[in-house]
Design a protein that fits this description.
Blueprint lengths: L33 E6 L5 E12 L2 E10 L5 E4 L4 E3 L5 E3 L5 E5 L7 E5 L4 E5 L8 E7 L2 E7 L7 E8 L6 E2 L6 H10 L2
Antiparallel strand pairs: 1-2, 2-3, 3-4, 3-5, 6-7, 7-8, 8-9, 9-13, 10-11, 11-12
Amino acid sequence: MADWTPWKPIDLHGWNLDGIVLPDRNGNVSVGTYDAFFPHSESDVAALIYGIGEVRLSVEVGRLAVFRHKENPVVILTPKFKCLVADDTVQWSWDGNILFVKAYFVSYPFAVIDLDRHLFSFISAATDLSAHEIRQEDDRTFTLVDYINGLRPYRRDVRLIKLDEMKWFGLDRLDDSTAISEAFSSSL
């Protein structure tokens, strides 16, 4: 779950992000925006959704930044796509190497980012993924749980996601609209 409260400073769990430069931030925080921090509980990696603002009624989005090395943080990823903001916007694999992020496109797919292999893909569903959760079954298998109208524990659908069967693209293409379009269409 995210540690965030709109309009207030966030708990960075001991990460020192002072002096970190992020795209579209330029050291300034826009009025009416806030950040949400998602550290992995047992590894040296964290995600920040920053510059969060409302784009339409009750829909908030922000930019993603991923960091390694808590003691001396380094930005390892800042894709251009926007992320849908919810308590579970960022979900980590057990070891912190796989990152699931609720992306904000026409629908709300999960962007799946394999930090060790430097790859990305997407998971989509027939319904709004803002009400979905990812559960890990083993090292490379996850379950996508769809909740009826976002109400837990009322499940509508459960789908097994096998990472080794997905179509993957290099992280160097994460901001390439052609690769994103192809990755997104292959997940439908």
